[in-house]
Amino acid sequence: MPVIIAIAIIVLGGIGMARRCAHGSSKLANEYVKPGGDTLAVAIEMSPLTYFLSHDTAEGFDYQILRDITSEHGIVADFYPVANLDDAFLGLYQHRYDMIVGSLPSTNALKKYFPLTEAVYLDKQVLVQRRDSAGGRGPISSQEQLLKDTVWVAEGSPNLTRLRNMSHELGETIYVRTDPAYSSEHLAILTALGEVKQAVVNEAIASKIAPDYPNLDIETPISLTQFQCWAVAPGDSTLLDSLNKWLYEFKSTARYHELVKKYL
Q1: Helix, coil or strand: residue 53
Q2: H or E segment at 40?
Q3: Which terminus, N or C, of the chain has the lesser number of Cβ atoms within 10 Å?
């Protein structure tokens, strides 16, 4: 187990901080005691797609889906918002959380560590950059142009795996930078403001931010379209099976398509 935990830490990043948000209370992740019974402990990624606060009201595509599902089946969900996913993954491995909700592509690398649900929606990774890139070269239009260049990603993000694989496929280094203070949303905004050169984020998140920053270019794909899923704690096949059944049923409802129209 110590070896597996060490590998998980290396792959997924160091320990971050998480904030509890359940029934109006908040708590740091390292003080957290997992609820029991029919209560789900959910680490949820803060982003303009997954979870955010609007006039003190919690909103977000994934948040609303899980809230509707758990309400329908009489389950209480305690949500623990996280700015990046590193601590959330470690907490999930240690069973401090029951599941993670966020921008999680269904990749073999992620499946090695955690069971993933069926697709909640489809998305892909894109390069976020300014249209007036330095030196007048214009925005990058192909993945090959990133070789020997530096790209930012959110700490703990699965997008890091894609950049490493791309570097291996193209036979040259792509330098990657992270900072625990920066989520994917922050990196997109910092890129628009010229404080970060470029970043890789999910297209659904980038599309939410781009209208407010006309100089932001999000047209260069970094991955193919991928299934975006939720992750559950290792060994919890009962929860995984239930979530898959509930998601399958929910995706056929008018409510799901209403949320797709609103957020995607």
Answers
A1: strand
A2: strand 39-45
A3: N
